[in-house]
């Protein structure tokens, strides 16, 4: 962890940060809300109901076995998009652990349901037996996506996607693929088309750029992908794009993902 030392706070500092995230200003018992809490080392005990608890009791980190500094270093690498293999070297943990922890960080990201409006670009991308539909609202960081578990997408899936993620009366921009032909009869949008063989790309350049960035992100950070993990990588990528504020530091990530105990 030598190379990372400057970035990783001391164990005491980390505990202080976590305590603030989980309990806010006032520490209280997660079971009975009493504020009379005794503390010895990292364990706490409620003086009213007598039950012991830790900083992570009741959160998704309740079974954390790593040292806090190693945990923080792994999370630092993940929020900063340090590739898995480099993280192995920096944090002195096995590749299996890095994949495990990066997955945990990914799975505990908040869910976002987005509806796109105004000008929207939409396109598909293919990864072996999986297809990906994605749309981007022009002039914002809003993305919507859907995985289709087969190697092509048909018109009914495309219109289902529109129905779910695109506000009626939006201006939809796509390439000339047949799945979008007369799509405005399936969902109320104003449809404009780029014909790629006529070297028209302006209407879909942003969404195509996003697909390029997605492929680079997966290859750089995770080195390869499997059909099992692809949907998670895509969700992670989209959230990194649309909500960068979650990924600015381990502290910001935890503040948005560690469920705090009820306030008392
Ligand atoms: Zn209690």
Largest sheet descriptor: 5 strands, mixed
Give unreliable regions as ranges: none
Query: What's the CATH class of the largest domain, please?
Result: Alpha Beta
Per CATH, the architecture of the largest domain is 2-Layer Sandwich
Class of secondary structure makeup: alpha/beta
Ions, cofactors and other ligands present here are: zinc ion
Distance linking N and C termini: 38 Å
* Individual helix count: 8
From the 3D structure, determine the CATH topology of the largest domain: Nucleotidyltransferase, domain 5
Radius of gyration: 23 Å
- Find the count of extended strands (DSSP E, 2+ residues): 8
Mean pLDDT: 90
Beta percentage is 15-25%
Count of individual domains: 2
Shape call: elongated
Fourth CATH level, the homologous superfamily of the largest domain: Ribonuclease H-like superfamily/Ribonuclease H
Main sheet strand line-up: 6-5-4-7-8
Q: From N to C, what is the helix and strand string?
A: HEEEHHHEEEHEEHHH
